[in-house]
Structure of Ribosomal RNA small subunit methyltransferase B:
Amino acid sequence: MAEVFSLRVLLLGGTHRRASSSSSSRNSLKPPLASVSASRKGPHTHSHKTQKLNLEVSPHRAVSAVRLMRIEFGGAFADLLNEKGKGSGDNEMAYVERTLGFCTRDLDDRDLRLVTDIVGGTIRWRRYLDHLISSLFHDEKAFRRMEPLLLQILRIGSYEIVKLNMPAYAVVDENARLAKVALRPGAGNMVNAILRKLVLLKETDSLPVPKLEGDDRAQARALAILHSHPVWMVRRWNKYLGEEEAVKLMEWNNSDPSYSLRANSGKGISRADLVAKLDSLKVPYELSLHMSDFVRIKTGLQNVIQAGLLKEGLCSVQDESAGLVVSVVDPQPDEQIIDCCAAPGGKTLYMASRLHGQGMISAIDINKGRLRILKETAKLHQVDGVVTTISADLRIFSETNTVKYDKVLLDVPCSGLGVLSKRADLRWNRKLEDMEELKNLQDELFDAASLLVKPGGVLVYSTCSIDPEENEDRVAAFLLRHPEFHIDPVDRYVSTDFVTAEGFYFSHPVKHSLDGAFAARLVRA
């Protein structure tokens, strides 16, 4: 469910509602602003209005601050690229103007890379950055009461100083200027003072570090600050993995993510063809060790997008862990397959490409908008002849549907705990209470999907989670309710390095350098 597969789904970062900002946080005591006609037309600007252009404020910091506001309070994602294959600078600047009351110069490619680095890093390290910032306040209540935009600016400056090692004078000066222009002179003075203190602490190697002491709860709180994760996750991973492995996992989650590209064989594109394209773009890559259609890239994704490789349907952005789930399904020509929670559709499209134009994949999802994108992408990839979409709630559909399928893929909604490296914001959006709700939903969907499997057919249950309560425990509970199914070990479909003792597929982020994922292959009697 959490995989990213195409330009439109991966990169529609500017379509969510923004966080509102208080008009009282702006005033007239600002550097001179030039009023210019609105040559940029973001999604919410109008040509008859004018924009206040401020050339003194750092563009990437202004965009980063507003984007962080939208992610934390407005539900936006951490991507900063759009479906046209370019940075969504126009969209972002529209949000900056509405939130801050001015716009800056256009974002260039370097600015876009900085925004991506700063937004992703600041989100990942949010808990640790807040620890540093709050330690510099005499009154913790003052820190807790801080207005959101001011806090985002301080987080950006702290991240640039502590993690990016940017020149201290520039970081302090430019973030203080942003606070002064966007808020008021006093806010700029506060940012200046706090960041100068932080620079001094860093230069004297005296940054505040929480001590790993006390009971399990106290140690988990310290680890949660050091590695910037929610305390409940740390305690959960300590329980299931042990502290040493939990720390390794958090270090992986905080590292810069790599991405995999899948050559679109449905359009006749081989991996060799894709590699030739990457060579021409001078994008470094590694061939996947596990999947013959995949290559990995650490840098250069923006170049791939701007060159139109995704827009033309030559490849998709899809993690190998998701591709391995498709290997577990093992789609074959002439089979009737249903993907039960299909959107955004990465696995649907990959399965379709492996049918070689023979058979049919029914993609069912409750979200009509995402299904529409799936249909458009299937056409782009030239696999629309074997893909049909069904907009429905699986639990209702399965009760009235009379068709039985050769293979059923149930990629359930899950916690996403296996993809925290790519989804930097997800760790802060998940709560412990979510796990119980998700498990109940997973059980309901599991039961519903089982009704669609013909005798002798295959049911594959998969997640992008590393949590046993969403994985092995759900399968065990299902088999108790449905003795007509039995486990089909996956060692015939994926490398034994990914096969658990129970015969399930499992990719571990630290062990395999992939997103975490799980799949169980079950056969109906």
